[in-house]
Amino acid sequence: MNLAFALARRELRGGIRGFRVLIACLALGVAVTAGVGSLGAAVDNALKHDAKALLGGDLEFHLFHRPADAAEQAFLAAQGEVAEIIDMRAMARSAAGAARSLIQLKAVDSAYPLYGAVTLDPPQALDAALAFRDGQWGAVAEEALLQRLGAKRGDTIHIGDADFTLRAVLTHEPDALAGGIDFGPKVTIAMPALTAITASAASNAVFSIQLEIR
């Protein structure tokens, strides 16, 4: 203790100037700690408040490279309302084939989404945007894909062996955070349209089931 007091007394000979850096570091540390705590509390509160919409349902199940079998589907259907999703990586090409882009392709059924809403530009119902009409299935995609392909709304794009009409820009989907890492712009199509794409394009598919418990 004598040595400690001697060193402290020596440092105080010039006043508190020597402690400016220490005081600044302490103030910065307290500010960072308070900021991280506030941010963590805000994120935690948001997750608790919007958990169903962020997940897409009360529960979500993932199966890799295979759909749920009849017994699994029957069990889940008995628990509540079910929405099925198939998510995969694929390649999209412009109508002329000159431009292409890796995309995160999502096929959804008519029950999707169970919670929240998909926002499109121009505003319209998702079922209407994805429906089969004028000889082609519809698709909605993020703005980044249109820029990469040099396409605009109403143009035709190729995904696998199938042609799709870009009917709207995808601006928001409620379960975006539940999908994990995206390897390209998101493109959403109707589940029946997936049969027009080759099996090789679906080899990396993840089959998801969102459940709204009754």
What does this structure look like?
The protein contains five helices and nine strands; from the N terminus they run ααβαβββαβαββββ. It has a six-stranded mixed β-barrel. It has two domains: 2-50; 57-213, no CATH class. It is an alpha+beta fold and 214 residues long. Helix content is 32%, strand content 30%. The chain has helices at 2-11, 20-55, 70-79, 126-130, 143-149, and strands at residues 59-64, 80-93, 100-108, 119-121, 137-141, 156-159, 162-172, 186-190, 206-213.
Largest sheet: 6 strands, mixed, barrel
Q: Tally the helices: what do you get? A: 5
DSSP, total strands? 9
Assembly type: single chain
In short:
With 214 residues, this protein is an alpha+beta fold. The chain has helices at 2-11, 20-55, 70-79, 126-130, 143-149, and strands spanning 59-64, 80-93, 100-108, 119-121, 137-141, 156-159, 162-172, 186-190, 206-213. The model has no long low-confidence stretch (mean pLDDT 82).
Tell me the layout of helices and strands.
Elements: H1 2-11, H2 20-55, E1 59-64, H3 70-79, E2 80-93, E3 100-108, E4 119-121, H4 126-130, E5 137-141, H5 143-149, E6 156-159, E7 162-172, E8 186-190, E9 206-213
Parallel strand pairs: 3-8, 5-7
Antiparallel strand pairs: 1-9, 2-3, 2-6, 2-9, 4-7, 5-8, 6-7
Defining key terms:
2 domains, 6-stranded mixed barrel, 214 residues, 30% strand, 9 strands, alpha+beta
